[in-house]
Amino acid sequence: MIDRRQWLKLTATAGAALSLSPRLVEALARGDLVRDEMITRTIPGTSETIPVIGLGSSATFASLAGSDEARVLGEVLRALVEGGGTLFDTAPSYGGGTSEEVAGHLVQELGLVDQLFWATKLNVARDGPADPDMARAQVEASFDRVGKDPIDLIQVHNMGDPAVQLPILREYKEQGRVRYIGITTTFENQYDQLIEVMRNEPIDFIGTDYAVDNLFAEETILPLAQERGIGVLVYAPFGRTRLWNRVEGRDVPDWAAEFDATSWAQFFLKFVVSHPTVTAATPATSQPHHMVDNLGGGMGRLPDEATRQRMVEYVNALPPA
Q1: CB 3.0 to 4.6 Å from 54: which of 130, 148, 254, 282, for a disulfide?
Q2: What CA–CA distances, in Å, run from 49 to 46, 117, 123, 142?
């Protein structure tokens, strides 16, 4: 566990290294931790709000979860909560099966269980139809790992046999053991199936990919989510590593200051969460100072529509990754 002194050291280091806004660094240093400055969005059909920036546990987070240095992930989770975030997105399959287990242990050890909006996934349909007993066993394992009942959100992962797995999640929701249910994909060949489920199934959330250089979701998925009252979690807001490769060696343009973006992470995240249908973005990281930087993407001003178009044009003019 990191104490207040360690947290202040961490945020000061992050501010120096990443050129965070002075307002953010000052608020962190004086102990306010900017909770009242984080932008929130209402979950459709409810009065519940969640901060627009969360934490994902794929990619580097997942890699570290399976290593001897997994305990540093506790610092990332602490940075999320101390900086005003609540949403943590995971899956039993991330990190070869270690991410959810390791994160669940850490949040219980750190006393963060009740402070997090815990979003996990269900998918036992690896090579064919889902086995209902295996699906229920996976959900029960998730309860054990996080020590939370009800779990805030469970989604069918990567369109895994929704005809079998969505009704199982619906049963858990009716029993009051899962608060929200949904379905996810970040694979282009599954978009049509995702759209079909959105049109025909009573779900609360979807999770999909969307970024300043990946606008497919704007064509049908986001408008349909708005029409159907479905919350949207955005995965891969950095295009995984694609956007980082495109801006390598470049400074954030001066005009990004007009919407309070002082780093590329904030530039990319503010584009995503400025879409009114997006509920939250969940960039993954295994570094506490990157978590602090990401949180800045949910604070201050957001780009308006004209600026969003300027952001798209700017990125499109860069050499491809």
Answers
A1: 282
A2: 8, 11, 27, 24
